[in-house]
Design goal:
The chain has 130 residues and is of the alpha+beta class. A five-stranded antiparallel beta sheet has the order 1-3-4-5-2.
């Protein structure tokens, strides 16, 4: 199992009026972490097709606050012919603050699911959580 770690710090723009990280920002930060992970894991990827989020689930466990530093740990949990599932943990000081699980479909230029190229599938399977 390969865990990709993405460091982040909560900025003022990430928070609500109470200084707590706004729930919608978790999705944006998770996407940044996924893009960083894909950039390291799955090169080269054709530009006319790609992975598009199909399903997301978030469990919030502890709030993150303004200026908190944390890590998003991304790991592959399943790889299909045209999809990949990941788990992303938001971790601060070894405590899990939120867990995001999601599935992305591999789409062609027309927006239809197609089989992933072997090079991409092999790279994703190499990081599969056992």
């Amino acid at each position: 199992m390969q865990i990709q770690k993405f460091k982040f710090s909560v900025a003022y723009a990430d928070t609500d009026a109470g200084g707590i990280m706004y729930h919608g920002r978790y999705i944006e930060i998770a996407e940044r972490a996924r893009m960083a992970w894909l950039g390291k894991t799955a090169r080269p990827v054709p530009t006319d097709v790609g992975l598009v989020i199909r399903e997301l689930h978030i469990k919030y466990m502890r709030p993150l606050f303004l200026a908190d530093e944390f890590v998003v740990e991304t790991v592959v949990t399943a790889v299909g012919a045209a999809s990949v599932s990941v788990e992303q943990k938001f971790v601060k000081n070894n405590e899990i603050c939120a867990i995001l699980t999601g599935t992305a479909a591999y789409l062609n230029g027309d927006g239809r699911p197609v089989r992933m190229p072997d090079v991409l599938k092999d790279a994703l399977c190499a990081g599969l959580k056992k």
